[in-house]
Amino acid sequence: MLALEPAPPLLADLGPALEPESHASLNAPRYLHSAPGPAPKERPPPGTVLEIQSAPESPCSGAVKNPPREELPDITTFPPRLLAEQLTLMDVELFKKVVLYECLGSIWGQEKGNEHVASTVRATIAHFNRLTNCVTTSCLGDHSMRACDRARVVEHWIKVARECLSLNNFSTVHAIVSALCSKPIYRLHKTWAAVSSKSTKYLKELCEKDTAVKRDLLIKAGSFKVATQERNPQRAQMRLRRQKKGVVAFLGDFLTVLHRLDTAIPDDLNGNSNKRRKEVRVLQEMQLLQVAAMNHRLQPLDKFVTYFPRMEQLSDKESYKLSCQLEPESQ
Fold first, then answer.
1. Is 169 helix (H, G, I), strand (E, B) or coil?
2. By percentage, how much of the chain surpasses pLDDT 90?
3. Which of 13, 63, 120, 158 has the highest CB neighbour count under 10 A?
4. Which residues are within 8 A (CB) of 186 and not within 5 positions of it... i.e. 6 or more apart?
């Protein structure tokens, strides 16, 4: 078992930490505003296995795949459940280390050139964006892949997203859904035509849940409703530990709320106590979710730990350019 870090200290006095330093604009709009578009037509995946398996053969006769770059195995060789657990483990490690005061809009939203500020927040953002890029790039593949090859990869990621949802990993669900509904992937009509109706149906359900499961619903549901109603912070954390239900929230939802508080409610000479109370409340909710995240008991798989950093990722421009080459608009 992984040695989990102790629960974060209670939010007793956030006075100095809540003093605004800057009202700069956000530096990571993609992370905060990557709302998925509509899911393609209609059509979850077959059962999953818990060990590495060889990638299934492409149903396209004559489809030839390029040798993997850097001798990396195909992403589909990792079973969906295993992928979901490994991605969840990465999210847990990042989310539980987030320093709460760094999430304030006046702290993490500072202009470029201050990358050293709010390092734990920026590390989580970087991982989210990297995962989204990796999903997009793996679905696009290269010119040697047929539409049905790409459809197989899309279906695999839909399976992974469903497994993440079962693990209450809302961060990875949002990353995968955002990638699959991004312009470079969404416009691939031939690819989506080869995706099973069952998988497309599951993607639509994921899009709906990804939109619905936001901060307010997450906090007010189930054990969190009980914990947030508990006035004693220590008892609230104890309640969550006893639940033994691991949860990984999407950090972007909280960053958006805190940024809006920072920009919508200006400070006066004596500060703004109402604004501070609202910010503290959001940070307390985040702290409870950090406790819940540590309820996950997962083990790292060395093969995936070395694999993920080496996954190819294209920029947004490169992805769209490749998408247009694979399926030109005229087609």
1. strand
2. 44
3. 158
4. 37, 40, 180, 192
